[in-house]
Automatic annotation (TrEMBL):
<dbReference type="InterPro" id="IPR014721">
    <property type="entry name" value="Ribsml_uS5_D2-typ_fold_subgr"/>
</dbReference>
<dbReference type="GO" id="GO:0004163">
    <property type="term" value="F:diphosphomevalonate decarboxylase activity"/>
</dbReference>
<dbReference type="Pfam" id="PF18376">
    <property type="entry name" value="MDD_C"/>
</dbReference>
<keyword id="KW-0456">Lyase</keyword>
<feature type="domain" description="Mvd1 C-terminal">
    <location>
        <begin position="170"/>
        <end position="301"/>
    </location>
</feature>
<dbReference type="InterPro" id="IPR053859">
    <property type="entry name" value="MVD-like_N"/>
</dbReference>
<dbReference type="InterPro" id="IPR036554">
    <property type="entry name" value="GHMP_kinase_C_sf"/>
</dbReference>
<dbReference type="InterPro" id="IPR041431">
    <property type="entry name" value="Mvd1_C"/>
</dbReference>
<keyword id="KW-0067">ATP-binding</keyword>
<dbReference type="InterPro" id="IPR029765">
    <property type="entry name" value="Mev_diP_decarb"/>
</dbReference>
<keyword id="KW-0547">Nucleotide-binding</keyword>
<feature type="domain" description="Diphosphomevalonate decarboxylase-like N-terminal">
    <location>
        <begin position="8"/>
        <end position="157"/>
    </location>
</feature>
<dbReference type="InterPro" id="IPR020568">
    <property type="entry name" value="Ribosomal_Su5_D2-typ_SF"/>
</dbReference>
<protein>
    <recommendedName>
        <fullName>diphosphomevalonate decarboxylase</fullName>
        <ecNumber>4.1.1.33</ecNumber>
    </recommendedName>
</protein>
<comment type="similarity">
    <text>Belongs to the diphosphomevalonate decarboxylase family.</text>
</comment>
<dbReference type="InterPro" id="IPR005935">
    <property type="entry name" value="Mev_decarb"/>
</dbReference>
<dbReference type="Pfam" id="PF22700">
    <property type="entry name" value="MVD-like_N"/>
</dbReference>
Length: 317
């Protein structure tokens, strides 16, 4: 029986996707811009089966979300045989990194290749969006820009060529995870914040400013814009009219304080956070090991991984 395997790496948005104008199609309210990371990825193998089944890290998993996704693929590509999907996530479980990004990017690539299709990356990106919005960007290596678009045909990501920027991301894993509020649920609540319109307005100019900062290899500006964007996103969660919430824990705040101190000591250190309490610190590659040592000294229990720009999707036959 033939099997097809694809690997996709996870990505961290420097300008975030936080709100949908169409929840069914995962059409975002704003464009977003990300960096794919070398350290964290998902490898997925698909083969024909008698029912759609999902195995994650060797364990049977709830296939509901994947069923919806396969339905969307079948509607678009034509019917195909049920699939046995086996996924291995090389993402530390407590890291709260968006494994749905690498997972749906790898699944889209493996499934379409399995069907004998050789589709452009932008088409894979558009299809992957139906599984998870952030997956649009995980098909590409380095930086990627997801253009919000206005409909199913026009909302997908592209690679964003940049000069060779010496950027590193320190992924700080914070233990004691609180009960998770999914990204989709978090976005729904955040959109009820009275500040949401301002967020959209700011994201629109920040995405242009971020591209200029990347072209100029201006890491300080990249960091400032990313931190402003991320903290404004988390402020929406706190100011939601409907069931306000936060992903932050006391340790998140401790790490954010430390990032500020590092900056006061003239280091390049800026924080970004996704739908969880973990902090990712943007820095210059030459400063990453020093910052890791500082974190270890002040917060010795936290695991810190240094990640760099990672590759786009790849296949194994
Ligand atoms: C905070 O892609 O996980 O990481 O489309 O509902 O699956 P769904 O959401 P998801 O959201 C990611 C949100 C984020 C920011 C980002 O990656 O842009």
């Amino acid at each position: 029986m033939t099997k097809t395997t694809a690997t996709a790496h996870t990505n961290i948005a420097l300008i975030k996707y936080w709100g949908k104008k169409d929840a069914q199609l995962n059409l975002p309210t704003t464009s977003s811009l990300s960096l794919t990371l070398d350290e964290f990825y998902t490898t997925t193998t698909v083969e024909n089966s008698n029912i759609d089944q999902l195995i994650i890290n060797g364990q049977m998993a709830d296939p509901t979300r994947v069923h919806h996704f396969l339905d969307a693929l079948r509607a678009e590509l034509g019917d195909f045989s049920p699939l046995l999907i086996s996924s291995q996530n090389y993402v530390p479980t407590a890291a709260g990194l968006a494994s749905s990004a690498s997972a749906f990017a790898a699944l889209t690539a493996a499934t379409t290749r399995h069907l004998g299709l050789d589709l452009p990356l932008t088409t894979l990106s558009r299809l992957a969006r139906r599984g998870s919005g952030s997956a649009t960007r995980s098909l590409f290596g380095g930086f990627a820009l997801w253009q919000a678009g206005t409909n199913d045909q026009t909302s997908y990501a592209n690679a964003l060529p940049t000069p060779n920027i010496p950027i590193s991301l320190l992924v700080v894993e914070i233990s004691g995870l609180q009960k998770k509020i999914s990204s989709s649920e978090g976005m729904l609540r955040a959109m009820t914040s009275p500040n949401y319109e301002q967020w959209v307005h700011d994201a629109n100019w920040q995405i242009t400013a971020m591209q200029a900062a990347l072209q100029a290899s201006d890491l300080t500006r990249v960091g400032q814009l990313a931190e402003d964007n991320a903290l404004a996103m988390h402020a929406l969660n706190l100011s939601a009219k409907d069931r306000r919430f936060t992903y932050f824990t006391p340790q998140t705040i401790q790490v954010l304080d430390l990032v500020k101190k590092l900056r006061q000591a003239c280091l390049i250190a800026y924080a970004t956070l996704d739908a969880g309490p973990n902090v990712k610190i943007i820095t210059h590659s030459d400063q990453a090991a020093y910052i890791q040592a500082q974190l270890h000294q002040e917060l010795p229990k936290l695991r810190v991984t240094i990640a760099h720009p990672g590759p786009g999707v790849s296949y194994e036959q």
